[in-house]
Specification:
Rubrerythrin, domain 2; three-stranded antiparallel sheet; about 15% strand
Length: about 55
């Protein structure tokens, strides 16, 4: 199972199992495969502002 990542700014959780189809990110897309310029859909934070969540 792919790791989920949480935005340390607003708490948004990116779940690779769900992806973000509205943004063109298909389910199954790991966080590492998101474009470098991708940002949090809730607050606009950068990828660097996300942390891996514990299992």
């Amino acid at each position: 199972m792919a790791k989920r990542y949480i935005c340390v700014i607003c708490g948004f959780i990116y779940d690779p199992a769900l992806g973000l189809p509205d943004e063109g990110i298909m389910p199954g897309t790991p966080f590492s495969a998101l474009p470098p310029n991708w940002s949090c859909p809730d607050c606009g934070a950068r990828k660097d502002d996300f942390e891996e969540m514990p299992d």
